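Check my protein:
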Amino acid sequence: MLTFKTIKALKAVPRIACVALAGGVFLSAVAQPVGSEEKGLGFGQSIFFSFRQSADKIRPDFNLKIWATNLEKALGAYRAGEFLKAHNLFKAAADEGDLMAHWWLGRMYQMGQGVALDDAQAFGHFRKAALAFDGREPPGPLMGAKLDSLVHVGRYYKTGIPDANIPRQPQRALRIFRTAAEFKHPGAQYGIGVMFYDGDGLEKRPRRGMRWLMLSAQKHFPLALAKLGDIYWAQRDKPFSDVRAMMWYILAQNVARPEVNPDIINRYNELASTLSPQVQEQARQMALNWSRRFPPPPHRQLTQPVAGTAAE
Protein backbone atom coordinates (compact mmCIF):
# COMPACT_ATOMS: atom_id res chain seq x y z
CA MET A 1 0.00 0.00 0.00
CA LEU A 2 1.35 3.41 -0.95
CA THR A 3 1.87 5.80 1.96
CA PHE A 4 2.47 9.52 1.94
CA LYS A 5 6.12 8.96 2.85
CA THR A 6 6.53 6.47 0.00
CA ILE A 7 5.06 8.92 -2.50
CA LYS A 8 7.31 11.69 -1.20
CA ALA A 9 10.33 9.40 -1.54
CA LEU A 10 9.38 8.51 -5.10
CA LYS A 11 9.13 12.19 -6.02
CA ALA A 12 12.67 12.64 -4.80
CA VAL A 13 13.93 10.17 -7.46
CA PRO A 14 12.98 11.76 -10.82
CA ARG A 15 14.63 9.12 -13.02
CA ILE A 16 12.82 6.15 -11.42
CA ALA A 17 9.17 5.41 -12.11
CA CYS A 18 7.20 2.78 -10.26
CA VAL A 19 4.09 1.30 -11.82
CA ALA A 20 1.51 -0.19 -9.49
CA LEU A 21 0.32 -3.63 -10.48
CA ALA A 22 -2.45 -5.79 -9.02
CA GLY A 23 -1.86 -6.92 -5.47
CA GLY A 24 0.55 -4.09 -4.64
CA VAL A 25 3.46 -5.54 -6.67
CA PHE A 26 5.74 -2.96 -8.30
CA LEU A 27 8.01 -2.93 -11.31
CA SER A 28 10.58 -0.17 -11.59
CA ALA A 29 12.23 1.03 -14.76
CA VAL A 30 14.01 4.08 -16.09
CA ALA A 31 11.19 6.17 -17.46
CA GLN A 32 10.21 9.43 -19.09
CA PRO A 33 6.73 10.83 -18.37
CA VAL A 34 4.63 11.40 -21.45
CA GLY A 35 3.28 14.63 -20.02
CA SER A 36 1.71 16.20 -17.02
CA GLU A 37 -1.78 16.11 -18.52
CA GLU A 38 -3.66 13.86 -20.92
CA LYS A 39 -5.72 16.36 -22.87
CA GLY A 40 -9.27 15.29 -23.57
CA LEU A 41 -9.02 12.14 -21.46
CA GLY A 42 -10.03 13.71 -18.16
CA PHE A 43 -6.81 12.75 -16.37
CA GLY A 44 -4.83 15.09 -14.19
CA GLN A 45 -1.34 13.85 -13.42
CA SER A 46 -0.18 11.53 -16.21
CA ILE A 47 -0.27 7.83 -15.43
CA PHE A 48 1.26 6.71 -18.71
CA PHE A 49 4.98 6.19 -19.20
CA SER A 50 7.19 5.30 -22.13
CA PHE A 51 9.56 2.67 -20.86
CA ARG A 52 13.13 1.94 -21.89
CA GLN A 53 14.55 -1.55 -21.73
CA SER A 54 18.25 -1.84 -22.40
CA ALA A 55 19.03 0.72 -25.10
CA ASP A 56 15.83 0.23 -27.12
CA LYS A 57 12.79 2.46 -26.81
CA ILE A 58 9.57 0.42 -26.67
CA ARG A 59 6.85 2.41 -28.37
CA PRO A 60 3.28 1.94 -27.19
CA ASP A 61 0.82 0.41 -29.64
CA PHE A 62 -1.75 3.16 -30.07
CA ASN A 63 -3.91 0.79 -32.16
CA LEU A 64 -4.40 -1.49 -29.17
CA LYS A 65 -7.94 -1.21 -27.86
CA ILE A 66 -8.31 -0.93 -24.13
CA TRP A 67 -12.05 -1.59 -24.34
CA ALA A 68 -14.37 -3.25 -26.87
CA THR A 69 -17.93 -2.61 -27.95
CA ASN A 70 -20.67 -5.16 -27.42
CA LEU A 71 -20.50 -5.95 -31.13
CA GLU A 72 -16.76 -6.64 -30.96
CA LYS A 73 -17.17 -8.80 -27.87
CA ALA A 74 -19.99 -10.66 -29.60
CA LEU A 75 -17.87 -11.33 -32.67
CA GLY A 76 -15.09 -12.70 -30.48
CA ALA A 77 -17.52 -15.02 -28.71
CA TYR A 78 -19.02 -16.11 -32.03
CA ARG A 79 -15.61 -16.97 -33.48
CA ALA A 80 -14.89 -19.00 -30.33
CA GLY A 81 -18.12 -20.94 -30.82
CA GLU A 82 -19.70 -19.45 -27.68
CA PHE A 83 -23.00 -18.85 -29.41
CA LEU A 84 -25.19 -18.19 -26.37
CA LYS A 85 -22.75 -15.56 -25.11
CA ALA A 86 -22.49 -14.12 -28.62
CA HIS A 87 -26.27 -13.94 -28.89
CA ASN A 88 -26.60 -12.01 -25.63
CA LEU A 89 -23.89 -9.55 -26.68
CA PHE A 90 -25.37 -9.12 -30.17
CA LYS A 91 -28.72 -8.46 -28.47
CA ALA A 92 -27.14 -5.77 -26.30
CA ALA A 93 -25.54 -4.19 -29.38
CA ALA A 94 -28.82 -4.34 -31.29
CA ASP A 95 -30.61 -2.65 -28.39
CA GLU A 96 -28.06 0.13 -28.77
CA GLY A 97 -29.11 0.53 -32.40
CA ASP A 98 -26.29 -1.42 -34.08
CA LEU A 99 -27.69 -2.64 -37.42
CA MET A 100 -24.79 -5.02 -37.97
CA ALA A 101 -25.83 -6.77 -34.77
CA HIS A 102 -29.34 -7.21 -36.19
CA TRP A 103 -27.82 -8.97 -39.22
CA TRP A 104 -25.96 -11.35 -36.93
CA LEU A 105 -29.02 -12.03 -34.79
CA GLY A 106 -31.02 -12.78 -37.93
CA ARG A 107 -28.36 -15.24 -39.00
CA MET A 108 -28.24 -16.94 -35.60
CA TYR A 109 -32.02 -17.37 -35.42
CA GLN A 110 -32.04 -18.57 -39.02
CA MET A 111 -29.44 -21.24 -38.29
CA GLY A 112 -30.33 -22.03 -34.67
CA GLN A 113 -26.96 -20.99 -33.28
CA GLY A 114 -27.16 -20.48 -29.52
CA VAL A 115 -30.94 -20.14 -29.81
CA ALA A 116 -33.80 -22.23 -31.11
CA LEU A 117 -34.28 -21.93 -34.86
CA ASP A 118 -36.91 -19.22 -35.31
CA ASP A 119 -37.68 -17.82 -38.76
CA ALA A 120 -40.02 -15.19 -37.34
CA GLN A 121 -37.26 -13.80 -35.12
CA ALA A 122 -34.78 -14.00 -38.00
CA PHE A 123 -37.17 -12.13 -40.28
CA GLY A 124 -37.67 -9.42 -37.65
CA HIS A 125 -33.95 -8.76 -37.26
CA PHE A 126 -33.20 -8.88 -40.98
CA ARG A 127 -36.10 -6.51 -41.61
CA LYS A 128 -34.74 -3.92 -39.17
CA ALA A 129 -31.42 -3.85 -41.02
CA ALA A 130 -33.09 -3.98 -44.45
CA LEU A 131 -35.30 -0.98 -43.71
CA ALA A 132 -32.15 1.11 -43.27
CA PHE A 133 -30.76 0.13 -46.70
CA ASP A 134 -29.82 3.10 -48.83
CA GLY A 135 -28.17 2.40 -52.16
CA ARG A 136 -26.52 5.81 -52.11
CA GLU A 137 -24.32 5.06 -49.13
CA PRO A 138 -20.70 4.06 -49.80
CA PRO A 139 -19.87 0.35 -50.05
CA GLY A 140 -18.63 -1.33 -46.91
CA PRO A 141 -19.47 -4.01 -44.36
CA LEU A 142 -22.49 -2.16 -42.95
CA MET A 143 -23.92 -1.44 -46.39
CA GLY A 144 -23.32 -5.09 -47.26
CA ALA A 145 -25.16 -6.25 -44.13
CA LYS A 146 -28.16 -4.09 -45.01
CA LEU A 147 -28.16 -5.36 -48.60
CA ASP A 148 -27.83 -8.97 -47.51
CA SER A 149 -30.66 -8.44 -45.01
CA LEU A 150 -32.80 -7.14 -47.85
CA VAL A 151 -32.27 -10.40 -49.74
CA HIS A 152 -33.17 -12.49 -46.67
CA VAL A 153 -36.37 -10.48 -46.25
CA GLY A 154 -37.17 -11.20 -49.90
CA ARG A 155 -36.69 -14.92 -49.33
CA TYR A 156 -39.05 -14.89 -46.39
CA TYR A 157 -41.69 -13.08 -48.41
CA LYS A 158 -41.18 -15.66 -51.16
CA THR A 159 -41.79 -18.64 -48.85
CA GLY A 160 -43.93 -17.00 -46.17
CA ILE A 161 -43.72 -17.67 -42.42
CA PRO A 162 -46.97 -19.31 -41.29
CA ASP A 163 -46.05 -19.17 -37.59
CA ALA A 164 -45.68 -15.40 -37.84
CA ASN A 165 -48.79 -14.92 -40.00
CA ILE A 166 -46.64 -13.77 -42.91
CA PRO A 167 -48.19 -15.18 -46.12
CA ARG A 168 -46.32 -15.98 -49.31
CA GLN A 169 -45.89 -12.81 -51.35
CA PRO A 170 -43.87 -13.78 -54.44
CA GLN A 171 -44.45 -10.52 -56.28
CA ARG A 172 -43.21 -8.55 -53.30
CA ALA A 173 -40.21 -10.87 -53.06
CA LEU A 174 -39.44 -10.33 -56.74
CA ARG A 175 -39.46 -6.55 -56.30
CA ILE A 176 -37.05 -6.85 -53.39
CA PHE A 177 -34.78 -9.22 -55.32
CA ARG A 178 -34.71 -6.82 -58.27
CA THR A 179 -33.64 -3.97 -55.99
CA ALA A 180 -30.80 -6.04 -54.52
CA ALA A 181 -29.84 -7.41 -57.96
CA GLU A 182 -29.10 -3.85 -59.10
CA PHE A 183 -26.16 -4.07 -56.70
CA LYS A 184 -25.10 -7.44 -58.13
CA HIS A 185 -26.03 -9.44 -55.04
CA PRO A 186 -25.76 -13.11 -56.13
CA GLY A 187 -28.45 -14.19 -53.67
CA ALA A 188 -30.91 -11.81 -55.32
CA GLN A 189 -29.88 -12.98 -58.79
CA TYR A 190 -30.39 -16.56 -57.66
CA GLY A 191 -33.82 -15.72 -56.23
CA ILE A 192 -34.96 -14.14 -59.49
CA GLY A 193 -33.54 -17.04 -61.48
CA VAL A 194 -35.40 -19.67 -59.47
CA MET A 195 -38.67 -17.76 -59.66
CA PHE A 196 -38.50 -17.48 -63.45
CA TYR A 197 -37.17 -20.99 -64.04
CA ASP A 198 -39.75 -22.70 -61.80
CA GLY A 199 -42.57 -20.25 -62.47
CA ASP A 200 -42.86 -19.58 -58.75
CA GLY A 201 -45.45 -16.84 -58.39
CA LEU A 202 -45.02 -15.59 -61.95
CA GLU A 203 -45.03 -16.82 -65.52
CA LYS A 204 -42.58 -19.66 -66.07
CA ARG A 205 -39.72 -18.52 -68.31
CA PRO A 206 -36.86 -21.04 -68.09
CA ARG A 207 -34.49 -19.23 -70.46
CA ARG A 208 -34.69 -16.02 -68.48
CA GLY A 209 -34.31 -18.01 -65.27
CA MET A 210 -31.14 -19.67 -66.59
CA ARG A 211 -29.62 -16.28 -67.43
CA TRP A 212 -30.16 -15.04 -63.88
CA LEU A 213 -28.84 -18.28 -62.41
CA MET A 214 -25.73 -18.01 -64.56
CA LEU A 215 -25.08 -14.47 -63.30
CA SER A 216 -25.22 -15.76 -59.73
CA ALA A 217 -23.12 -18.84 -60.56
CA GLN A 218 -20.39 -16.64 -62.04
CA LYS A 219 -19.94 -15.26 -58.52
CA HIS A 220 -19.72 -18.86 -57.22
CA PHE A 221 -22.92 -18.57 -55.20
CA PRO A 222 -23.42 -22.14 -53.88
CA LEU A 223 -27.22 -22.31 -54.22
CA ALA A 224 -27.09 -21.15 -57.85
CA LEU A 225 -24.35 -23.66 -58.67
CA ALA A 226 -26.34 -26.48 -57.06
CA LYS A 227 -29.53 -25.42 -58.84
CA LEU A 228 -27.76 -25.63 -62.20
CA GLY A 229 -26.47 -29.06 -61.22
CA ASP A 230 -30.02 -30.20 -60.47
CA ILE A 231 -31.27 -28.79 -63.78
CA TYR A 232 -28.69 -30.74 -65.78
CA TRP A 233 -29.18 -33.88 -63.68
CA ALA A 234 -32.88 -33.81 -64.55
CA GLN A 235 -31.83 -33.81 -68.24
CA ARG A 236 -29.26 -36.59 -67.93
CA ASP A 237 -30.84 -38.49 -70.81
CA LYS A 238 -29.17 -35.87 -73.02
CA PRO A 239 -25.47 -36.17 -73.96
CA PHE A 240 -23.00 -34.88 -71.34
CA SER A 241 -25.74 -33.71 -69.00
CA ASP A 242 -24.42 -35.96 -66.24
CA VAL A 243 -20.95 -34.46 -66.71
CA ARG A 244 -22.36 -30.93 -66.51
CA ALA A 245 -24.43 -31.81 -63.46
CA MET A 246 -21.32 -33.11 -61.69
CA MET A 247 -19.33 -30.06 -62.78
CA TRP A 248 -21.81 -27.69 -61.14
CA TYR A 249 -21.85 -29.74 -57.96
CA ILE A 250 -18.05 -29.82 -57.81
CA LEU A 251 -18.10 -26.02 -57.97
CA ALA A 252 -20.95 -25.83 -55.43
CA GLN A 253 -19.35 -28.03 -52.79
CA ASN A 254 -16.09 -26.08 -53.11
CA VAL A 255 -17.79 -22.93 -51.77
CA ALA A 256 -20.57 -24.48 -49.65
CA ARG A 257 -20.24 -24.29 -45.88
CA PRO A 258 -21.10 -27.53 -44.08
CA GLU A 259 -22.98 -25.74 -41.32
CA VAL A 260 -25.02 -23.69 -43.81
CA ASN A 261 -25.33 -25.85 -46.93
CA PRO A 262 -25.22 -29.49 -45.77
CA ASP A 263 -27.69 -30.51 -48.51
CA ILE A 264 -25.26 -29.40 -51.21
CA ILE A 265 -22.41 -31.44 -49.76
CA ASN A 266 -24.63 -34.49 -49.28
CA ARG A 267 -25.89 -34.21 -52.85
CA TYR A 268 -22.34 -33.90 -54.17
CA ASN A 269 -21.33 -37.07 -52.31
CA GLU A 270 -24.39 -38.84 -53.70
CA LEU A 271 -23.49 -37.92 -57.30
CA ALA A 272 -19.84 -38.82 -56.74
CA SER A 273 -20.87 -42.30 -55.59
CA THR A 274 -23.16 -42.71 -58.62
CA LEU A 275 -21.07 -41.51 -61.54
CA SER A 276 -18.07 -43.27 -63.04
CA PRO A 277 -14.49 -42.05 -62.45
CA GLN A 278 -14.29 -41.06 -66.13
CA VAL A 279 -17.37 -38.82 -65.86
CA GLN A 280 -16.06 -37.29 -62.64
CA GLU A 281 -12.69 -36.54 -64.22
CA GLN A 282 -14.36 -34.82 -67.17
CA ALA A 283 -16.46 -32.83 -64.73
CA ARG A 284 -13.39 -31.80 -62.74
CA GLN A 285 -11.67 -30.52 -65.88
CA MET A 286 -14.77 -28.55 -66.84
CA ALA A 287 -15.01 -27.10 -63.32
CA LEU A 288 -11.36 -26.07 -63.48
CA ASN A 289 -11.89 -24.33 -66.81
CA TRP A 290 -14.97 -22.55 -65.45
CA SER A 291 -13.04 -21.31 -62.41
CA ARG A 292 -10.28 -19.98 -64.65
CA ARG A 293 -12.83 -18.10 -66.70
CA PHE A 294 -14.78 -16.89 -63.67
CA PRO A 295 -12.39 -16.82 -60.69
CA PRO A 296 -14.11 -17.24 -57.33
CA PRO A 297 -14.17 -14.14 -55.13
CA PRO A 298 -11.83 -14.10 -52.13
CA HIS A 299 -13.26 -15.89 -49.13
CA ARG A 300 -14.68 -13.26 -46.81
CA GLN A 301 -14.69 -13.47 -43.05
CA LEU A 302 -17.96 -14.44 -41.40
CA THR A 303 -17.82 -11.26 -39.42
CA GLN A 304 -18.03 -8.98 -42.44
CA PRO A 305 -20.86 -9.39 -44.89
CA VAL A 306 -20.00 -7.51 -48.06
CA ALA A 307 -22.22 -6.23 -50.83
CA GLY A 308 -22.26 -8.76 -53.64
CA THR A 309 -22.15 -11.77 -51.32
CA ALA A 310 -24.70 -13.49 -49.16
CA ALA A 311 -24.77 -15.23 -45.85
CA GLU A 312 -25.61 -18.60 -47.23
About this structure: The mean pLDDT is 80. Residues 31 and 51 are 5 Å apart (CA to CA). The radius of gyration is 28 Å. The chain is about 55% helix and 5% strand.
